[in-house]
Design a protein that fits this description.
GO terms for molecular function: RNA binding. This is Piwi domain-containing protein. Belongs to the argonaute family. The N terminus is likely disordered. Strand 27 and strand 28 form a beta hairpin. The longest helix is centred in the C-terminal third of the chain and has 25 residues. This protein is of the alpha+beta class. The radius of gyration is 32 Å and the shape is globular. Among the domains are: 126 residues, no CATH class; 114 residues, Beta Complex (paz domain); 168 residues, Rossmann fold (3-Layer(aba) Sandwich); 257 residues, Ribonuclease H-like superfamily/Ribonuclease H (Nucleotidyltransferase, domain 5, 2-Layer Sandwich), CATH 3.30.420.10.
Amino acid sequence: MRTHFCGPLVPLMSGAMRPSLSAKVAPISSGSDLAMMASKLEPLYSSVLCRTTTRFAENHSATAALKPSESVTMVIGSTTSTFRMSSSIGTPLGRSFETQLPSEESLLTAEIGLKCLRLSVLHSPWFSNFPRTMSDCLLPSKALQGNELREVQTVPCEINGFNLRFDRALTVFQHELTIYGLFMRQGEAKEVDLLRAAKYDAQRQERRTMIWDIFKNLLATHAEVFGGKERRAEYIYDCGFLLYSLKHLAESEAKELFLETKILNAKSQAVLGRNCERIKAKITYTTSFICSANQLYPSGAGDAGSEQRCRALQQFCDILTSQKVNQREDQLVYKNKRYDADSRNDIAANMAKVIKDGSEKITTIIGNTAQEQGAILLIEPKTSPFFKPGPLKEFFREVFYEVKARTTDDRRFRNELKKLLQGLTVKTTHLAKQATFQIKSLTEQTAGQTAFMKEDKTEITVAQHFNEKYRIAVDEHYPCIIVERMFKGEKERNFYPCEVLEVPPGQRVQTQEQTPKLVEQLIEKARKLPSDVKEVVRRELNKFELGDRNEYLNAFGIRIERSLCSATGKLLPPPDIKYKTNRESAVDHAGRRQWKVGNNGFVRPAKAPSRWVVCVFANAIGCDSARAFVKAFVGTAKMHGLVMNEPFYDRLQDLSADNIQTRAAYYRSNGVKFVLFLHGGEKRSIERDLMKETETRYKFVTQMVHTKTVLKALSQRGSQMVLDNIIMKSNLKLGGVNHELVSSRHHPVNFVEYTLFPAGRMFIGLDMQSPGSPLMGGVNEFCSDPTVIGMCYTVGTSPADMRGGYWYQEAKEKRMTELKGAICRALDHYRQKSAADPRRQRSPREIVIFRAGVSEGEVNKIVNEEIPEILDAFKEMPREGGRPYSPRLTVILAQKQCGIRLMPANTRRGKAIEENVQPGTCVTSKIVNPHWTEFILVAQQALQGTAKPTRYVVLHDDERNRFTVEQLENMTHALCYLHGIVALPVSRPAPLYAATELVKRGRANWKSREHRKNHGDDRSISSDASDSKEIPPGYFAPINETRLFNLATDIDARYWA
């Protein structure tokens, strides 16, 4: 548990838990006095102190403030600490501090001015008020803009959003609505909560339409509560627990309403069943707020009340703008997302799936300052895969034919089918009362082989049973569905053939169920140019029925402008690219952000491996073509300074998991350090991933080159650029540095070298990816995959020199575990690279961390748990200059899924490069948060579709020496030019981009391990290996064989590149 304290606050416990005080204190009953105190502090700390002190003073009466010059002695148990207040209240007393309470007793340290107060506090309900969203967290206030760059081009932009106008500042009353079904079971009435979270997509759609039917009838039958038909638009409902109204519905106590089930429509009655006789609704008042963006920050400060009003307004507007689609059966609704249920516009996709177009909307509070805030409704086009609805047998057939096109292995078909079906919701078609359930697994045997015991103790197969009892012909060659359920306190398993089941519509495909081919189809379908995005966004506004005739908007005095929201961006200048002897401009003659490597030498060519192998997978390419490619590869490498000797050649015909591992062990036993393998199958195939996984087991570096890339490298057109890209990747993988960054003519002198990347500044990228989870949150019971965390960091003196790794944690963990140890290892690595002489090694003076892989609702875990853990890691490092190690720390949240699209205001139809905003377009005003330091950046060159910007929010900064917004945005932008594999900027800072790649590598390696386990090969690298005299026949001459043995070497390079 963690909480915040600021300034001269001392918590006082009650009863036996109260610490003894030797000084007089002035009790405070509300937050007004503390807010007044905060106004006297430095502006940098004022808003933070005001927010925190008001929150705690209003919620805890046992709060006291100390007077200047008074001393306090805190005595709890054997701990005694004395503190004297600073004599001047004008000093920065508002600096916040935190405490972590992992057990009943914990030590609290608070820095106030130049003094330090140490006290011991007991675990108490006093600490129950914790931040829960980004708004609740104590983020640094807006930084100064800065003006070091004198000439910056402005760019008029539009975004995929519409301004909300609040014509009337109406008071909105929020209520909690609970709905129960009264069921008669065995002569007794039992209440069942009808709002319980639906577990499955299909169930959620069915539940939503039923709940709306109940709500509609409640309004109609209880006019004494809700008023007549003309007032029904004054009630906003989320089909869950939240009910908003312009009228106070339960002023004194909760109100109960009843409804007869028989007045509901037939579909709702069928869902409820025959035993549900009545519906009970309970309305409880919770809070109220003013429906106006102008009322969010009345005092100009982001205090706790302001942030609560902000969140309340956002939530209300999200639900208000969903009222029309929530009540429609022809819509598939998932919180703020909607898709058409109609399948006529669906696109057929890989493995019995379809692709639907839809959108997601969200309300965002924006503004330059707290006094200029407003609200916009963002609408982002969405493309999502769904399972194809219909008979399950058709599903089986489609998967069967697709798998059989690749292999004749029946086991492969069953494994593919099992992976697809696990967790899918199906519905029976042969029963009097149809049942809906999730698929647990598949039988190992077919329907003609799977048997069970009948009540008369005779054995019968599933196919025979359904033929005899239901007169249904069952295909005996397909496996059966396994369903588990509790019956009379015991778990029983039932078998169903595919002929008696169907797939209900509206079931989205989870991430772990998406095949590489499906991902390609999704990407292709989702590509829309800016001109098309603008049209789709306007069309989606109409799909949500958010025009002038929307009675709900009119009732609450809200208008949505029909024109897209505008913003003014600025074009950040790119750095120049420095090679060994020359420098290149990052802007070509056509004005595009790209450059040519040419014959430039790498800044630091890697040390060539003493022994390396070119391995051809199966018949990916012929011998002559392979040798010609290697010749061109070696020649290009030499031109850039990477001198490679002649490789050994090998051909791997058997691509089974066991044979790939055997061959990898064989390579290692012969001292191989680098394997370049040529592959002709799918780029994300399991064979490719198995070969990549050998890096972790056998400690050599691998690089895949696809057959198509090999042929491009041997062609007459564009071959040099292809070879350059391959060699750039090879040099990074082997430990080299391709290029560095220097100031261009558009920068102040040495701006990049000394302001953005001074000596002693370290950059860290952190990303995490959880396995596909169920749509209502939580951990998928059918998925045992872990969460993967990737970490990349710079070492030595150059931000282009990076190292990294990944680790796993349980999927249920929403924060990064083992972070302290990872930071310590990264700092140790930095020290080792800082100087060859251990006596001259230094840790970084400044650390900038880019954190991704987190939603806004989980930001508090970063602020309250991860950042303190990082600060704790600093305490483990060696002292420098006789002082504890305490570097300047800045943490920036990078949100790629921010929902915003930046597009030129005047879009002309053309190619993607012509329609999109230019790389380096950055927005820091109008459409950003009015209180936090935030900027939106498009760093990449959009080659297809519409560029997706990244939203950056500063979560932590050193208040003594803060970065300006200009420095942060230019530093972030420049780092996008250090990816090193292509001569283009990437979408996010290179350390963060690499961290994401490490997450992908970790996920692929986990899948490879699971594949080996399922196919009988789960040997560890420490397993014993014996001599083998038989060498599998290969197209090329084999390497000289020696005994296989374990060689535990660390890969000190960007092996994941």
